[in-house]
Each structure stands twice: as C-alpha cells, then as structure tokens.
Amino acid sequence: MNSGKVFAAPWSTSLTLITYLSVGVLLSIPIFGLFNFYNGMEPGFVFALFVLPVAILLISALFMIRGYTISNNILYIQRLGWKTALDLAGLESAEADPKAMKGSIRTFGNGGLFCFAGKFRNKRLGSYRAFATDPNLAVVLKFPDKVVVVTPKSPTTFSMMLKPPY
Question: What does DSSP assign to residue 165?
C-alpha cells in the first residue's frame, strides 16, 4: 500500500462541546485566581491555579487528531506538529462500524479534550486503542494482538483501502 492518501478527522458534536466546555473551565481557573487570590499566594497555589490548567490545555492540544494518512503500509495519525505511526503489518481486518465505540469506558487517555484517544474497553471489542474525533465514523482495525479504532472522514473508503491485497 503506497497511496499517501490523506483522510480528514472531522469532530463530532460531542467532541466539540466537550472541548469548548473544557477549554472554558481550564481558562477560567487562572482568570478567577488572578482576580481573587493573586496577592500573597503560596507557590503551590499559584501552580494549581495558573500553571496546571494552562499546561493541561497546551499538552492536550498537541495530541489533537487532525487526520490520517496511509502510506507504505503505515497509518500515520496526524497530530498538531507531529504524527503517530501505526504499522499495518499483520492487519487482519478493517471494518467501518459506526457503533464500535458505543458503551465504551476509558481506561487510560483523553475522553474529549480535542480528541478521544487512549485505551478504551467495551463488550463488543474488548480492550482497544482509539485515535478518534467522531465515534460515528469508526473504523475497527483488528490485528492478531490488538484492536485499534480510528475515525476518518469516509470510513468505508478508508477501510476498503486497507483490505488485502495491498
């Protein structure tokens, strides 16, 4: 597979709402602290009110999922300024499944600040890793030892590109 085909990662309404609410809360904490507690603040309190919320926001933004590229048997998850590579060697199946993430519980990762990414679990897939922005666009990639969910625009076209022969 040598396509270099790029797929966008559109945001769902829920991701948009969670992100806006989270950004609002994270930015309001230092603003509130600035107007109410700044004079004579302990260093730990300054860290908690100013540094921590801004750091969470900036670090989460770096992990934002912007799109997916398939090239030379590798799936690249486009981030903000970098990419995560997923080797497609051993891929057993790639199926578009808009209900794949339903009923999922996040076991480790980000549950909605710029993306849904990390380790998740549900009855249907068991444990899996997600790099998602819109669960309704889910494509389930099954490997012998793991399951990965991505959410590209045009999930059917995306999954067809990953089916053998490469």
Answer: P
* 55 C-beta neighbours (distance < 10 Å), count: 12
Domain coverage including residue 52? 1-166
| pTM beyond 0.85 | yes
CA angle, 58 as apex, 34 and 15 as ends, to 5°? 105
- Residue 21 CB coordination number (10 Å): 12
Q: How far apart are CA 141 and CA 28, in angstroms?
A: 39
Number of domains in the chain: 1
The model's pLDDT over 101-133, given as tens digits with 9 standing for 90+, comes to 999 999 999 999 999 999 999 999 999 999 999
Q: Per-residue pLDDT for 15 more than 90?
A: yes
Q: CB-side exposure of 22: number of CA atoms within 13 Å?
A: 20
